[in-house]
Amino acid sequence: MSTVSSTIDNIWSIDVPQPGGDYTPCPAGNYPGRICGLFDIGHHPEEKTDEKTKAKSMVDTHKFALVFELAEKQANGKPFTMGLKLTWSMHEKSTFFKLVTGITGIKLQPNTTFNPCSILGTPVLVNVVQKPGKENKVHANV
To answer: Quick check: 108 and 90 in contact, CB under 8 A?
Structure first.
């Protein structure tokens, strides 16, 4: 039991950095990587605009996070990981539908089912962009 416990402790251990942080964002560019995680993050209120009437309303939207592990390494030798928050939708106009089509090369047909877990482990090319944040910080985004 102690061997399992110590292994789990090692996997889930997180170093606590000095105040001010030592975070370095991933440099901008295209990097080979793989899809390493898919997490249901629940329903969130989101403002939507009706295309016809332009009326705005709050809609309960199902979200999930897709996580990429890049071949690019941090200064400590660990790979950069990047997340992308998406709407749980396979509508042909959705970002996830377009992403899946680009990854698989297959345009899924209406009235079919797609299991997002099927793309876990898939090699991908990840485009990282940097955007300015508060207090002169830089944020890296997919």
So the answer is: yes
Q: Count CB neighbours of 82 within 10 A.
A: 20
Q: Does residue 70 contact residue 82 with C-beta atoms inside 8 Å?
A: yes
CB of 62 within 8 A of CB of 42?
yes
Predicted TM-score (pTM) of the model is: 0.80
CB atoms inside a 10 Å sphere around CB 57: 10
Q: Give me the half-sphere count of Cα atoms (radius 13 Å) on the Cβ side of residue 103.
A: 22
pLDDT one digit per residue (tens) for the chain, 142 residues: 445 555 566 778 887 877 766 678 999 999 999 999 999 999 999 999 988 999 999 999 999 999 999 999 998 899 999 999 999 999 999 999 999 999 999 989 999 999 999 999 999 999 999 988 887 788 888 9
Are 87 and 41 in contact by the 8 Å Cβ rule? The answer is no
What angle is formed at CA 142 by the lines to CA 41 and CA 98, rounded to 5 degrees? 75
Report H helices in 1-68.
2-12
CA distance 125 to 107: 19
